[in-house]
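Fold this sequence, please.
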Amino acid sequence: QVQLVESGGGSVQAGGSLRLSCVASEIHFPETNIYWYRQAPGKEREWVALIMNSGFRNYVNSVKGRFTISRDNAKNTVYLQMTNLKLEDTAVYYCHATGGGEPETWGQGTQVTVHT
């Protein structure tokens, strides 16, 4: 069973930056597609960004120009660089993997809190 471990969350002032990491225990990592989702209190889980095994990337409109997703296949890691953070970015951020010949997998989440 593939495991995903997120890290890098924390508390940051509005306008600040954080970099989230998602490390996968997946020998076929280059073949996987990785997604970041987030869930704020009282709200449904929301897709934030994706990076396909081809390198194609996409973002939800609310984070375009502020968030950047990237991957380092040598380290089995995907990053989410978040800049100009806003109060509404506060949520638990989850990493999600598909493909690579493995079942879909979710990480345990990492908390991001943006304060004034």
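The mean pLDDT is 95. The radius of gyration is 13 Å.
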